[in-house]
Amino acid sequence: MIELDVLDRNTFGDRQLREEVLGLFRQQSLQLMARLEETSSATDWKISAHKLKGSALGIGAQSVAQLAAQVEQAFFSNSLSSRDAALAPLRQAIEATNREISGLLA
Fold first, then answer.
1. Among 5, 70, 74, 86, which has the highest number of CB atoms less than 10 A from its own CB?
2. Cβ distance 92 to 29 under 8 Å?
3. 50, exposed or middle or buried, with CB in 10 Å at 0-12, 13-18, 19+?
4. Please, is 49 exposed, middle or buried when counting C-beta atoms within 10 Å of its C-beta (0-12, 13-18, 19+)?
5. CB of 74 within 8 A of CB of 83?
6. CB of 89 within 8 A of CB of 67?
7. What distance in Å separates the CA atoms of residue 81 and residue 50, rounded to the nearest whole number?
8. pLDDT per residue as tens digits for the range 57-68
């Protein structure tokens, strides 16, 4: 899920910085996912998805970045079932990425 060469390049090979960045991604990804699930604003939807995409690119989590880009461009719906269907693949990718992060930080 994470391209370690991208992560290492973006953290200058510094192990402590790498761990800090991974921890920040894990925290931010959960916050942004919650915001996407709860927002009633199309603007907040797009901003949250865009932030998530950028954060994922920073650690080399290409699948999360691609799915966040799709969500960013997706039509915002106030329907919770439509929103959940649009977000389900992104949620799964975030969960898988965060499991990988837990392994890297252990």
1. 86
2. no
3. middle
4. buried
5. no
6. yes
7. 22
8. 999 999 999 999
